[in-house]
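Hello Y.,

Per our agreement to keep a running log of every chain we model this quarter, I'm adding this entry. I've kept the format consistent with earlier entries: sequence first, then predicted structure.
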Amino acid sequence: MPKMIIGFVGQAGAGKGTAAEMLAKNANAQTFTFSDILADLLKRLYMEKSRDNLIKISTALREAFGQDALANVMEKQVQQSPADIVIVDGIRRMEDIEDLSKDPRFHLVEIWAPPEVRFERLKNRNEKAGEGDMTWEEFTALGERETEKTIAGVAEQAKNRVDNSGDLEEFKEKLETLVQSY
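Predicted structure for the entry above:
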């Protein structure tokens, strides 16, 4: 059972995954992501890991099994982890943190970066199908998707916000300081 649980919330391209990678490497943390649960299902269905498919399968699961279906999977993974520090990446909805927030070991952190920076990061990383060719209009439309609209409300619940508009070294220092404060 983990001693500390850190949840990351933020818009696409803000640096949640980078933050999780840094902590996994430097603090020996274990990371669980909501999108990994969905990507695993898409892989089993032999479907492309695109943002559209991730959203479709997330919506279908929540409609069929309840809005907290993915949160229930995540909570079980977190509680079974032998790591001292567990990172929950990709929090988007209040249901995602409803049970975790009751745990005194849980800390919700917003990872933030300006839209122009996030747009360039998404294009450069090209992690999901189509991101490398994304236009500014497509990027701004992303924020209007059902899965993205709830992020701001969840981010308001975060006790801490890490600004990731600078360079990687600055971001790493901010994260280390934050974890030490817990």
